[in-house]
Amino acid sequence: MDSNKESNNEKKKMSAALKLTIVFICVAAALTFFSKTMYNAGIPVVQVSPVMSEQLRIVHTGEGFVVPKETAPLYAPGDLVITEVLVKQYDVVEEGDVLAAFDVSGVEAGRKEQCMELRAPFDGVITGVSAHPGMMAGRYEPLFELSNTELGYVVRLVVPMEYARFFYKAKISIFDTIHTIPGTIISRAPVPGGGVELTIELEPGRAQIKPDMLAVLELTHVTEKFSAIVPYTAIFDEAFVYKLIETEGPLGMEYRVKRIPVEIIVRGEGLVAVTGDLRQRDEVVVSSDRPLADERVKVFKEW
Questions:
Q1: Residues facing 52 on adjacent strands
Q2: pLDDT digits over 25-80, tens only?
Q3: pTM for the complete prediction?
Q4: Reduced 3-state DSSP string for 19-73
Q5: Kind and range of the H or E element at 80?
Q6: What pairing do the DSSP bridges indicate for beta strands 45-50 and 296-299?
């Protein structure tokens, strides 16, 4: 009997000790959980993306109007009154066609024939008309603008300064036609207020083109390899990124962010090439649930 009692007592002690152990473990786990929760409470939750080293595809689109590559102003043969205008804007003319006639009643006999009419000096398209019947035409005021269609057409487009040096070719869709025409950039000129105007020559003979047709342009270029490319969403205030840094904290490994000044080289499709203290495979913040400073963060990596 005594031995049975001792055995039961021993079992009760072991059971009590086991319960105490379980309670202790649960309390310790709860304390650890709540301490981590309290420690992490209020810190920003961020998403990050790696810094890449690769080429960048740059795309820029815009609209412009087709204009002749070269035009010439045409003047009256003297100070004469216009009696008839025989062309209108966008008329196609051939060399020798009469554009306007003048009243030569007051002109000496020897000059009447050469002053009677203004003729086209070459084949082309009338792209500007300021003459009208009854108008006194001065010899220094252009009456018509004539484009030389044999020299082709261009489209002009203003692009941001950072893009201008990359583009050499263009794909041009012309409204009112079913054609997409290749184009070559033949000149670049700065414009007031920033940006660069590109003059793009259309490849000849690819469509029935006329002046003032609306054109949609797409310019693309694949750059050389840049050492630091980040998503555009990683750039804050156009001036810096937040780099993720892993450090040892009181409760194990933790993350902090450090603000790194950067300079934008060029923007691509959702990506930006930058200079700054960044290396390939560094991680930068692309979103945060609150404003950031140089501080501890929690990284959310489930996209």
A1: 229
A2: 655 444 454 444 444 556 899 999 999 999 998 888 899 888 888 889 999 988 89
A3: 0.61
A4: HHHHHHHHHHHHHHHHHHHHHHCCCCEEEEEECEEECCEEEEEEEEEEEECCEEE
A5: strand 80-85
A6: parallel
